[in-house]
Design a protein that fits this description.
The chain has 191 residues and is an alpha+beta fold. The protein contains five helices and twelve strands. The chain folds into two domains: 52 residues, no CATH class; 112 residues, Roll (2,3-Dihydroxybiphenyl 1,2-Dioxygenase, domain 1). The longest helix is centred in the N-terminal third of the chain and has 17 residues.
Protein backbone atom coordinates (compact mmCIF):
# COMPACT_ATOMS: atom_id res chain seq x y z
CA UNK A 1 0.00 0.00 0.00
CA UNK A 2 1.34 3.46 -0.86
CA UNK A 3 2.10 5.87 1.95
CA UNK A 4 0.15 9.08 2.49
CA UNK A 5 2.80 11.35 0.89
CA UNK A 6 2.95 9.22 -2.28
CA UNK A 7 -0.84 9.14 -2.51
CA UNK A 8 -0.99 12.92 -2.26
CA UNK A 9 1.88 13.72 -4.61
CA UNK A 10 0.77 15.28 -7.90
CA UNK A 11 1.11 13.08 -10.97
CA UNK A 12 1.59 14.36 -14.53
CA UNK A 13 -1.37 15.55 -16.56
CA UNK A 14 -5.02 16.20 -15.82
CA UNK A 15 -5.66 12.76 -14.31
CA UNK A 16 -2.82 13.27 -11.82
CA UNK A 17 -4.24 16.65 -10.86
CA UNK A 18 -7.72 15.16 -10.40
CA UNK A 19 -6.25 12.40 -8.21
CA UNK A 20 -4.37 14.97 -6.09
CA UNK A 21 -7.60 16.99 -5.73
CA UNK A 22 -9.54 13.89 -4.67
CA UNK A 23 -6.97 13.04 -2.03
CA UNK A 24 -6.78 16.59 -0.65
CA UNK A 25 -10.58 16.86 -0.58
CA UNK A 26 -10.89 13.55 1.26
CA UNK A 27 -8.48 14.89 3.92
CA UNK A 28 -10.55 18.09 4.25
CA UNK A 29 -13.85 16.20 4.40
CA UNK A 30 -12.67 13.77 7.04
CA UNK A 31 -11.21 10.35 7.58
CA UNK A 32 -10.71 7.63 5.01
CA UNK A 33 -8.16 9.00 2.55
CA UNK A 34 -7.01 5.56 1.36
CA UNK A 35 -7.31 4.33 -2.22
CA UNK A 36 -10.31 6.16 -3.60
CA UNK A 37 -12.50 5.44 -0.61
CA UNK A 38 -14.21 7.71 1.86
CA UNK A 39 -15.55 5.84 4.86
CA UNK A 40 -15.45 2.66 2.78
CA UNK A 41 -17.42 4.10 -0.16
CA UNK A 42 -15.87 4.50 -3.60
CA UNK A 43 -15.60 8.15 -4.62
CA UNK A 44 -14.84 9.81 -7.92
CA UNK A 45 -14.40 13.38 -9.11
CA UNK A 46 -16.64 14.20 -12.07
CA UNK A 47 -15.73 17.88 -12.43
CA UNK A 48 -13.79 20.58 -10.64
CA UNK A 49 -15.38 21.33 -7.30
CA UNK A 50 -17.39 18.12 -7.12
CA UNK A 51 -17.00 14.70 -5.56
CA UNK A 52 -19.27 11.68 -5.79
CA UNK A 53 -19.64 10.10 -2.37
CA UNK A 54 -21.90 7.08 -2.03
CA UNK A 55 -23.58 7.99 -5.33
CA UNK A 56 -24.29 11.59 -4.24
CA UNK A 57 -22.66 14.65 -5.73
CA UNK A 58 -20.94 16.69 -3.01
CA UNK A 59 -19.92 20.28 -3.81
CA UNK A 60 -16.87 21.85 -2.22
CA UNK A 61 -14.92 25.07 -2.60
CA UNK A 62 -11.20 25.12 -3.24
CA UNK A 63 -8.52 27.14 -4.98
CA UNK A 64 -8.74 24.93 -8.09
CA UNK A 65 -12.44 25.50 -8.71
CA UNK A 66 -12.94 27.22 -12.06
CA UNK A 67 -15.04 30.33 -12.41
CA UNK A 68 -17.85 30.50 -14.97
CA UNK A 69 -16.54 31.75 -18.30
CA UNK A 70 -18.15 34.70 -20.00
CA UNK A 71 -17.40 33.63 -23.57
CA UNK A 72 -19.47 32.68 -26.59
CA UNK A 73 -18.46 30.88 -29.77
CA UNK A 74 -17.32 33.42 -32.34
CA UNK A 75 -15.48 31.89 -35.29
CA UNK A 76 -13.88 28.84 -36.87
CA UNK A 77 -10.72 28.73 -39.01
CA UNK A 78 -10.87 26.27 -41.90
CA UNK A 79 -7.99 25.74 -44.32
CA UNK A 80 -8.70 25.28 -48.03
CA UNK A 81 -6.24 24.97 -50.91
CA UNK A 82 -8.36 26.99 -53.32
CA UNK A 83 -9.59 30.08 -51.46
CA UNK A 84 -11.06 31.73 -54.58
CA UNK A 85 -12.89 28.50 -55.49
CA UNK A 86 -14.26 28.10 -51.96
CA UNK A 87 -15.54 31.69 -51.93
CA UNK A 88 -17.14 31.21 -55.36
CA UNK A 89 -18.86 28.05 -54.09
CA UNK A 90 -20.25 29.79 -50.97
CA UNK A 91 -21.44 32.72 -53.13
CA UNK A 92 -23.18 30.45 -55.66
CA UNK A 93 -24.59 27.75 -53.38
CA UNK A 94 -25.04 29.46 -50.01
CA UNK A 95 -25.54 33.03 -51.33
CA UNK A 96 -22.82 34.14 -48.88
CA UNK A 97 -20.37 36.92 -49.70
CA UNK A 98 -17.26 37.60 -47.60
CA UNK A 99 -17.39 40.37 -45.03
CA UNK A 100 -13.59 40.55 -45.37
CA UNK A 101 -11.28 39.31 -48.09
CA UNK A 102 -7.50 39.34 -48.04
CA UNK A 103 -4.91 37.65 -50.21
CA UNK A 104 -4.87 34.40 -48.19
CA UNK A 105 -7.90 34.72 -45.91
CA UNK A 106 -11.60 35.57 -46.09
CA UNK A 107 -14.43 35.82 -43.55
CA UNK A 108 -18.00 34.65 -44.11
CA UNK A 109 -20.67 35.44 -41.54
CA UNK A 110 -23.48 33.04 -40.67
CA UNK A 111 -25.56 34.64 -37.93
CA UNK A 112 -23.33 35.16 -34.88
CA UNK A 113 -20.64 32.73 -36.14
CA UNK A 114 -17.82 33.67 -38.49
CA UNK A 115 -16.27 31.14 -40.84
CA UNK A 116 -12.68 32.16 -41.54
CA UNK A 117 -11.31 30.48 -44.65
CA UNK A 118 -7.52 30.38 -44.75
CA UNK A 119 -5.59 29.36 -47.84
CA UNK A 120 -3.21 26.52 -46.99
CA UNK A 121 -1.52 23.40 -48.32
CA UNK A 122 -3.45 21.06 -46.01
CA UNK A 123 -7.24 21.26 -46.05
CA UNK A 124 -9.22 21.07 -42.83
CA UNK A 125 -11.63 18.16 -42.54
CA UNK A 126 -14.68 19.67 -40.87
CA UNK A 127 -18.45 19.53 -40.67
CA UNK A 128 -20.31 22.80 -40.28
CA UNK A 129 -23.86 22.45 -38.96
CA UNK A 130 -26.72 24.82 -39.71
CA UNK A 131 -30.05 24.91 -37.88
CA UNK A 132 -32.97 25.05 -40.30
CA UNK A 133 -36.74 25.33 -39.92
CA UNK A 134 -37.26 23.23 -43.08
CA UNK A 135 -34.48 20.77 -43.88
CA UNK A 136 -36.09 19.42 -47.06
CA UNK A 137 -36.75 22.81 -48.67
CA UNK A 138 -33.31 24.19 -47.83
CA UNK A 139 -31.70 20.95 -49.02
CA UNK A 140 -33.51 21.13 -52.39
CA UNK A 141 -32.59 24.81 -52.79
CA UNK A 142 -28.89 24.19 -52.13
CA UNK A 143 -28.77 21.15 -54.43
CA UNK A 144 -30.46 23.20 -57.19
CA UNK A 145 -27.67 25.77 -56.75
CA UNK A 146 -25.01 23.11 -57.30
CA UNK A 147 -24.28 21.47 -53.93
CA UNK A 148 -23.32 17.78 -54.12
CA UNK A 149 -25.40 15.41 -51.99
CA UNK A 150 -23.65 13.29 -49.38
CA UNK A 151 -26.84 12.20 -47.63
CA UNK A 152 -30.48 13.09 -48.29
CA UNK A 153 -32.68 14.41 -45.46
CA UNK A 154 -33.57 11.71 -42.93
CA UNK A 155 -35.09 11.64 -39.43
CA UNK A 156 -32.70 10.64 -36.65
CA UNK A 157 -33.53 8.99 -33.35
CA UNK A 158 -32.15 11.94 -31.37
CA UNK A 159 -35.04 14.12 -32.57
CA UNK A 160 -33.78 15.89 -35.70
CA UNK A 161 -34.04 15.69 -39.47
CA UNK A 162 -30.57 15.91 -41.02
CA UNK A 163 -29.01 16.19 -44.50
CA UNK A 164 -25.34 16.41 -45.52
CA UNK A 165 -23.81 18.24 -48.48
CA UNK A 166 -20.27 18.37 -49.85
CA UNK A 167 -18.76 21.81 -49.55
CA UNK A 168 -15.53 23.16 -50.99
CA UNK A 169 -12.28 21.46 -50.02
CA UNK A 170 -12.92 18.93 -47.27
CA UNK A 171 -15.89 20.76 -45.77
CA UNK A 172 -19.16 18.93 -45.10
CA UNK A 173 -22.27 21.01 -44.52
CA UNK A 174 -25.00 19.67 -42.26
CA UNK A 175 -28.60 20.89 -42.29
CA UNK A 176 -30.41 20.05 -39.07
CA UNK A 177 -34.09 20.59 -38.30
CA UNK A 178 -35.45 19.90 -34.83
CA UNK A 179 -38.46 17.59 -35.02
CA UNK A 180 -41.61 18.03 -32.96
CA UNK A 181 -41.53 15.76 -29.90
CA UNK A 182 -44.10 13.27 -31.34
CA UNK A 183 -42.03 12.90 -34.55
CA UNK A 184 -38.85 12.39 -32.51
CA UNK A 185 -40.39 9.46 -30.64
CA UNK A 186 -41.67 7.84 -33.83
CA UNK A 187 -38.22 8.03 -35.48
CA UNK A 188 -36.46 5.97 -32.77
CA UNK A 189 -35.71 3.24 -35.26
CA UNK A 190 -34.04 5.63 -37.74
CA UNK A 191 -30.25 5.86 -37.81
Amino acid sequence: MENREEALSPQGGEMGEAKAHQERDRREIGEGWERDTYKGVVTTASRAGCLHVDGREVEFEDEFRREELSMDGNHFHVFVRDLAGALAWFARVWDAEPTYRGERMAVLQFGPILLILDQGEEETVTTIGYATADCDTDFRTLVARGAQVIEEPADRNWGVRVAYLKGPGRITLELEQELPKADARSSDSAT
